[in-house]
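4.2 Preliminary Data

To establish feasibility before requesting continued support, the project team ran the inverse folding procedure on a target of 232 residues. The structure was first converted into the token representation described in Section 3, and no sequence information of any kind was made available to the design step. The complete token record follows.
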């Protein structure tokens, strides 16, 4: 794989990676700065999409149409939905869905996208296994989990909502872009992987915890991403 698109929702999620790149060309498209350049002799495009599913989907489409990337990797932070997944741990997506897709009033189950052949988007197995190996060998101090990531245009900071997400979708963690990137990747026949480090527990403590641990969580994903790009 030689052309990889890397999306972070926020500047702080991609800054360190941008600093490590060489021969960088910057273009603004759809109000997003696309940084194309080299890292470990791989051609990569690093971009801040902005927060939320619409920004994330538009960003993925540009990577596909204009940069012709061969895979999309999304990096960032997330709220944990399981007791055993702690702050600083990494979650790799097996699959992802939109928890706020709601056509239940029309008889569909929660999370189901009407008139689409699927609502759950499955991540690329070789990207998952490579990322898992890198975590275990290069950053053994971090626990890595592989499971479902649920996305919605909502910051989850409420235990009842958290319980609903776990009961309804069996999610490992929740964030605001992954499923949109995954859906856009699926529509364009592109492999993808969502990599998230846990910044909070998606409950009443989430806002405080997020501010305290965001930076540490991001450092963990950056370590993994460097290793991943090198090995791809
Ligand atoms: N990103 C990080 N923490 C989150 C949370 N609790 N809900 C949604 N997105 C998040």
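Position-by-position output of the design step:
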């Amino acid at each position: 794989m030689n052309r990889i698109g890397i999306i972070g929702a926020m500047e702080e999620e991609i800054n360190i990676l941008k600093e490590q790149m060489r021969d960088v060309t910057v273009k603004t498209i759809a109000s997003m700065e696309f940084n194309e350049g080299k890292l470990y002799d791989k051609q990569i495009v690093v971009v801040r999409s902005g927060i939320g599913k619409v920004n994330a989907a538009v960003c993925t489409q540009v990577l596909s149409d204009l940069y012709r990337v061969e895979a999309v990797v999304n990096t960032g932070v997330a709220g944990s939905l399981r007791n055993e997944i702690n702050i600083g741990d990494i979650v790799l997506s097996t699959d992802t869905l939109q928890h706020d897709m709601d056509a239940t009033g029309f008889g569909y189950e929660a999370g189901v996208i009407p008139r689409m052949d699927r609502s759950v988007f499955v991540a690329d197995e070789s990207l998952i296994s490579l990322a898992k190996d890198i975590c275990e060998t290069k950053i053994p101090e971090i626990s890595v989990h592989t499971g479902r990531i649920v996305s919605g245009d909502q910051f989850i900071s409420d235990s009842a909502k958290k319980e609903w997400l776990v009961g309804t979708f069996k999610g490992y963690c929740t964030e605001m872009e992954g499923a949109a990137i995954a859906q856009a990747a699926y529509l364009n026949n592109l492999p993808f992987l969502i990599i998230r480090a846990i910044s909070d527990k998606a409950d009443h403590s989430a806002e405080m915890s997020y501010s305290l641990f965001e930076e540490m969580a991001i450092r963990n994903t950056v370590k993994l991403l460097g290793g991943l790009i090198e090995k791809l």
